[in-house]
Predict the structure.
Amino acid sequence: MATDWIQAKPEGLLVVPAGIYLDPSKPVQQAIVSHAHGDHFHPGCKEIIGTPGTIALLKTRIHQGKSPIFKTLPYRTEFTFGGVTFTFLPAGHIPGSAMIYMTWQGMRVLYTGDFNPQPHPMAEPLEYPEGHIDLLITESTFSGKTFTQLSPEEEWKSFRERIPQGMPALLGVYALGKAQRMIRTILDHDLQDLILVHPFIQQYHEVYQSLGFQPGEVYPYRKKRPERKGHTIVLMPPTFFRRMAQSGKYHAAFVSGWDKRNKQAGIVDWLKISDHPDRQQLCAFIEKINPGHLWPIHGDFSPLEAWAKEKGIGLAT
Ligand SMILES: [Zn+2]
């Protein structure tokens, strides 16, 4: 099958007939961005096209230098460039996150960006495309890992029981996405827990609310805070987390599919919660899509390629 109308370039994935890049990591003229995480867009692009949720989050993130021209297109709305028709479908990863469905000369391609097929309190639920997919370009972050994701609610419940009495918990989270998911999960379990956050996390609260998501009540880490009967949970972005974990004053855990436990660095626990599919969920997703060809990107995908060969799914070359 001719898949050479989408090519991997140093800037990102180029959709050749349209002259547009998907999720470029370098400045380009025109980019379609799947979601607002930093490894999926470059602020130096001339024009960025995304869902309303993605563009609202990008406007919060890009506030230095010359801003790109932003164009918003809602989910499930077709738009055409150079004969290629593009449609955004919800990806279930963070607010506004989209899989990009493309058709050109009768060929149908799905690019997942980052996606999550499980229920998620802080993202629009993933929607599968209709009809046959000739080529699936998929993220494969955890394709070779044995990390198994339980429900985040169960994971939190068992973590909470491990917090020593009277000791605050410190969670390492990415400021956009993981933080808001954790806030909602903590408060849904027990409203008596007190959540303190870094301003980098709090800056997204208003955008989330404007998009119809309610992460829940939090307080700035350094300011006066109310008394609560439950645990005190401090949420910090990675750099601040690592610094604070070293003090030994907290029951510290990084929230991720990757195991970051390190007693010497003060990281004593692990919260196995990810907004990416674990290996089993990734394989189930691919089997459900049942594509003509598979093109895994991001991560160590050789185990996934071996699995695809066993299943008789062709690999894009
Ligand atoms: Zn992401």
Summary: The domain at 6-145+276-315 is CATH 3.60.15.10 (Metallo-beta-lactamase; Chain A). The pocket of zinc ion is lined by residues 35, 37, 93, 114 (CB under 6 Å). The chain has two domains: 6-145+276-315, 152-271.
